[in-house]
């Protein structure tokens, strides 16, 4: 072990070769390896540790005992690093993935920036989904009945046309969903209701695209919208940070 | 002891309420809450500091490193305007729950 000279004036009262500053330095070194703990966090934790140690000493423990208990109370470095790694604090509202940001807020809050992000995100996602559907249908027909494919109905053509319809459908879905639910993000909406809004968007879309609407068009857009709404809500919930773990 | 859900829900309003009385720092917040609750609410450091940092990010509170009465540097937190607004909302909500429960628990069911 080390046999550095001890600060005799500091250890005199309890006659142990324990140096608080050394110990705190070592403790900090082990913590410093955690990327989630910034130097400022370390300084704050050190300040806390010193305070805690002083308090325990005042309660009658010697410096070493006080330090050891104070360190233990702070929790091991892995636990601490994990807690600090969370971007948002724990928020466990049962049954519903309420965003942490709603802590301290009343009810649903419409945030324009977040709403815009949701609508743009949905438009892009729906473009991809609908584009893939269009290409898929074209490829499928190409396999089953090649002669029925007219020029301009190849996979790329349909992916482009249907994808653009998806862009509009996604935007319509986003807007009616957010307005209907008075929320800024999809993950905050009940899945069943999200699908219901998806079907609504699918019903509105043909009227936006053309004057006369056939049941065939309506069926296509409703099915595609319901499907896209399901994919969207699954993705939105996946992307949402999981609610934090238990309080120790 | 409080359930973890209740601890999670009450941390922010409790921190806001203590800071409404004046600035404070992590260690004092934990000690203060423990004392006020008669030892029934014990916050862990690993829980509190990330919450404080998040509240600061959200603009509810602000912090400042300063020398405390111990002569060492401490990070003091104080309420900002956003925090006061959040506290007012919290108060309303908690009082709603509180009055409702009080009414429910005071009225004895009558079997007539």
Descriptive keywords:
heterodimer, A: 248 residues, mainly alpha, 9 helices, 65% helix, 0% strand, elongated, B: 112 residues, alpha+beta, 3-stranded antiparallel beta sheet, 4 helices, 61% helix, 14% strand
Describe this protein's structure.
The complex is a heterodimer of chains A (248) and B (112). Helix content of chain A is 65%, strand content 0%. Mean pLDDT of chain A is 77; it is low at 88-108 and 241-248. Chain A has 248 residues and is mainly alpha-helical. Chain A is elongated. The longest helix of chain A is centred in the middle third of the chain and has 33 residues, at 112-144. With 112 residues, chain B is α+β, with helices and mostly antiparallel strands. In chain B, 61% of the residues lie in helices and 14% in strands. Chain B is built from 4 helices and 3 strands, in the order αβααββα. Chain B has helices spanning 4-21, 26-36, 45-57, 81-106; strands at 24-25, 61-67, 73-79. Chain B has a 3-stranded antiparallel beta sheet. In chain B, α1 crosses α4 (81-106). Chain B is elongated and about 65 Å long. The interface between A and B is large, with 39 and 35 residues.
